[in-house]
Amino acid sequence: METLPLAGLYLLALGTLLGWPVALQHVAPSALTRVGIQHPRRLLQMHLDYVLMGILLIAVGVALPEAPAWVVVPLVAGAVVNPLLFLPLAFREDAGASPVYRVVSTASFLAMSVGAVGAAVHASGL
């Protein structure tokens, strides 16, 4: 199986599994608080983002089964890291103000942008 659809399936699986803490929030909200989760809504965002990123990778992989590495690598890196950026925010809402967070966030969004635009450019033959 090609890299993008396979990576997409793994992210889709991860997103699905992250539905469990979201469900736990409705059944036993104190369980998340005990492990330090202060903002459980961020887990919902991470859950949905991984599902969407998985679908995105599958779609691009089907549209471009032989996508070049310069498209695949940044696209997969961004698809993995972007949703993960919600995790520190689940513990501390001000985590986004950290210089490290900002650098990682910027790099991740840049990777996603390069990969997505690169996929469109490659597909159009430019």
List keywords for this structure.
126 residues; flat; 7 helices; mainly alpha; 80% helix; 0% strand
Describe what this molecule looks like in 3D.
By secondary structure, this protein is mostly helical. The protein has one domain (3-124). The chain is 80% helix and 0% strand. It has seven helices and no strands. It is flat and about 55 Å long.
What is the molecular shape?
flat
The tally of helices reads 7
For this entry, what is the oligomeric state of its chains?
single chain
For the secondary structure, the number of strands is 0
What helical percentage do the residues reach?
A: over 70%
- Uncertain regions spanning at least 5 consecutive residues: none
Question: What is the H/E order?
Answer: HHHHHHH
Radius of gyration, in angstroms, nearest whole number? 16 Å
Secondary-structure class:
mainly alpha
Mean pLDDT: 95
Overall number of structural domains: 1
Biggest sheet features: none
